[in-house]
Amino acid sequence: MEASSKGDVLYNRCLSAARASLQGLDYVFYQNDLTVMGIADNPGDLLAICQDLVASHLFQAMTMDGVLVWRVREREGAGKLAALTSDERLIYGHIESTSTTGIWTKALKAKTNLHQTVMTRALKSLETKRLIKPIKSVKYPARKIYMLSHLIPSEDVTGGPWFADGELDLDLIEALTDPILHWVQARSWKEAPRVSQSVIAKKKLEKEKAMAAANRGSSGVPEAEEPKYTPPTGSNGRPLLALPPNHRTYPTAAAILEFISSVGILEGLTLTEADLKTLLDVLVFDGKLERMGAQGYRTVRQPKNIPEEGEGNGFSSAPCGRCPVFSLCEEGGPVSASNCVYFDTWLKG
């Protein structure tokens, strides 16, 4: 078999294998992978065939952990590469090697050792030809990063479904938060049983009598006060009660994901369980949800009409109750009550 024919056979087999793999054209072929295809007569013949494919831009040669490997390209893409200048081809190769993570222009300049003017011109030309595109990174928003135009940035770059165009998608988060909290609450607590009208009337009468006696200055009866806050209530307006201690079927991330998928809130957005757990963790940190066991969640009962400044107690109002280095505080240590500037301010306030 002639070398060109061997090259075509090897290329076609590699292209088929890459398309059938989960990685697609990012699939990497080691020398052993190509050897077992039985196309080359010996290792030298195989390397020569690969070199011809690299020269025609059908193969991309690269190293992984110091080992020479190859990736296959579509013929259309290889044809576009052949029409590039040497500088454009050099830059394209480095951008291509970073796959879905992209490469920072400063790192690209260091790898290519090209003058800034030359690199800027080559990048503009490649972008005009729609071979590369600039992307925004949520980790490094100030950096200019490029990747191949046909690729989709990884979640490490985009931040996943909670970001849009490099910025936190607050509209999406708000659209999901309220339905999730409402659905989880209905499965986290039970409302108190309905009280008959006769019982309500009796309690109301007792309260009116107590208030009347207090207003007359009757001894032993304290003056009635309005409650400091309203207990949390359910959808029917009755107080929320905890479920039995042996209750184990609190909503999980999988169940919550199934709920929001079934009601059509996502509107075509693909959301994984791991993505949803990120949002649930935020709700836990915000004090809206709490974990129940290894996988369950329930809502936090929030009293209503809480005064802006509660009475609290000595420990909660003192700096010690919120001190991040409380465990290090001791006489003679790096932090102590005798040299704490916040403690003096609290005592004087």
From TrEMBL:
<keyword id="KW-0539">Nucleus</keyword>
<dbReference type="GO" id="GO:0005666">
    <property type="term" value="C:RNA polymerase III complex"/>
</dbReference>
<comment type="similarity">
    <text>Belongs to the eukaryotic RPC34/RPC39 RNA polymerase subunit family.</text>
</comment>
<dbReference type="Pfam" id="PF05158">
    <property type="entry name" value="RNA_pol_Rpc34"/>
</dbReference>
<comment type="function">
    <text>DNA-dependent RNA polymerase catalyzes the transcription of DNA into RNA using the four ribonucleoside triphosphates as substrates. Specific peripheric component of RNA polymerase III which synthesizes small RNAs, such as 5S rRNA and tRNAs.</text>
</comment>
<dbReference type="InterPro" id="IPR036390">
    <property type="entry name" value="WH_DNA-bd_sf"/>
</dbReference>
<dbReference type="InterPro" id="IPR007832">
    <property type="entry name" value="RNA_pol_Rpc34"/>
</dbReference>
<feature type="region of interest" description="Disordered">
    <location>
        <begin position="211"/>
        <end position="240"/>
    </location>
</feature>
<dbReference type="GO" id="GO:0005737">
    <property type="term" value="C:cytoplasm"/>
</dbReference>
<dbReference type="GO" id="GO:0005654">
    <property type="term" value="C:nucleoplasm"/>
</dbReference>
<keyword id="KW-0240">DNA-directed RNA polymerase</keyword>
<keyword id="KW-0804">Transcription</keyword>
<dbReference type="GO" id="GO:0006383">
    <property type="term" value="P:transcription by RNA polymerase III"/>
</dbReference>
<dbReference type="InterPro" id="IPR016049">
    <property type="entry name" value="RNA_pol_Rpc34-like"/>
</dbReference>
<protein>
    <recommendedName>
        <fullName>DNA-directed RNA polymerase III subunit RPC6</fullName>
    </recommendedName>
</protein>
<dbReference type="InterPro" id="IPR036388">
    <property type="entry name" value="WH-like_DNA-bd_sf"/>
</dbReference>
